[in-house]
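Lecture notes, continued. The same structure-token format from the folding unit now serves as the input rather than the output. Read the line below as a description of shape only.
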């Protein structure tokens, strides 16, 4: 891609564990987030802003250049992260639900989205989640 392209394409991405089971345990969470962080940072044209979640799902805030095919990129993140967890951390420890949720947002909302992602556990505990950013479909058929 030409280095003369300017873009501000910000995404909030979320996906769930298979049937929304609480698979992201304390044992898995730190290693999963570290793995995903590394994979995102090694993607040319990707900038990670935040990663967080709870036992049943994950949230990622990222900016991507327009040459990245988002659906393929997310598919690779999901596939490689479950493979890594299941082979390096805990056998049969993690399986993702098919699909994902994705919302774009303006740069002026970036800090709000970062804070939202970093405080997932608190939002779910208090019931202060954002319907727009938490929307998902049960698609395990």
């Amino acid at each position: 891609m030409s280095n003369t392209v300017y873009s501000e394409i910000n995404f909030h991405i979320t996906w769930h564990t298979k049937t929304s089971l609480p698979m992201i345990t304390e044992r898995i969470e730190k290693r999963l987030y570290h793995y995903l962080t590394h994979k995102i940072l090694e993607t040319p044209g990707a900038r990670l802003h935040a990663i967080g979640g709870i036992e049943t799902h994950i949230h990622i805030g990222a900016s991507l250049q327009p040459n990245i095919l988002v659906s393929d990129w997310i598919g690779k993140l999901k596939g490689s992260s479950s493979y890594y967890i299941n082979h390096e951390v805990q056998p049969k420890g993690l399986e993702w639900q098919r699909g994902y949720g994705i919302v774009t947002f303006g740069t002026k909302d970036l800090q709000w989205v970062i804070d939202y992602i970093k405080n997932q556990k608190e939002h779910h505990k208090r019931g202060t989640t954002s319907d727009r950013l938490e929307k998902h479909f049960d698609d395990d058929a």
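Point for the exam: The chain has one domain: 10-134.
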